[in-house]
Amino acid sequence: MTTVRLPLFPLNSVLFPGLVLPLNVFEERYRAMMRELLKTGEDEPRRFAVVAIRDGREVAPTAPGLPDQTALPERGPTAGFGADPVQAFHRVGCIADAATIREREDGSFEVLATGTARVRLLSVDASGPYLVAELEELPEDAGDGAGALAEGVLRAFRNYQKRLAGARERSLTSGADLPDEPSVVSYLVAAAAVLDIPAKQRLLQAPDTATRLAEELKLLRAETAVIRHLPSLPAVDLTRAPTSPN
């Protein structure tokens, strides 16, 4: 078992390998993380791990609030995640490689990272200024019939996009922009489809590419059927991950 220790960045979203992650970093615990990553040479990867939050808050409370107006704001690396933070997170996440870390005048950071590989969360160390995780790297096995499943998923995804664009009266990614490598297809579709965090998390932690693609095929067909009966959809950009407010 290959393990690695990396800074941990919990989010209210799921990061997939190959997908871009923009971050707006303003909390002190994550500022400290970025300052440490900047010490890494530019010719070396500036890596941290991203996990989706199962039970907790992405941004810690910073002022007293209801029901106790006198409560002190939560501080420290575990703020918002409880006494045992590992229980607050989904156990499969993704390593992110920060291609750009730019510090602003106010001390916050603008970060642009890319997901690289899946990892399993083993433990969390909260003794420093930010969380550090012990992680097990997960292989990406193709599974049986991944190639044929990828073709089916691409067809279903194109139909899904057409229905989605029709409901929103706009066009989305064209079929020409889509890849054909099964694992890349599986992650792109998982990121682009309009699904909740539990559904995206199940896709991330699928045991192999074929299993992920088979699940996506079912989800796309179900979602397309739902969209067919909707007059319109909310005006949100459904194919781009939102910038995290951290």
Helix content: 25-40%
Radius of gyration: 19 Å
Strand content: 15-25%
The parts where pLDDT drops under 50 for at least 5 residues are 62-66, 169-175, 233-243
Number of E strands: 6
Identify the overall geometry: globular
Q: So how many helices?
A: 5
Distance between the termini: 32 Å
- What's the arrangement of strands in the largest beta sheet? 1-3-4-5-6
Largest sheet: 5 strands, mixed, barrel
Structural class: alpha+beta
Order of helices and strands: EEHEEEEHHHH
Average pLDDT metric: 85
Domain Lon N-terminal: 6-224
InterPro entries: Lon_prtase_N, Lon_prtase_N_sf, PUA-like_sf
Protein name: LON peptidase substrate-binding domain-containing protein
What does this structure look like?
This protein has 246 residues and is of the alpha+beta class. It is 29% helix and 23% strand. It has 5 helices and 6 strands. The chain has a 5-stranded mixed barrel.
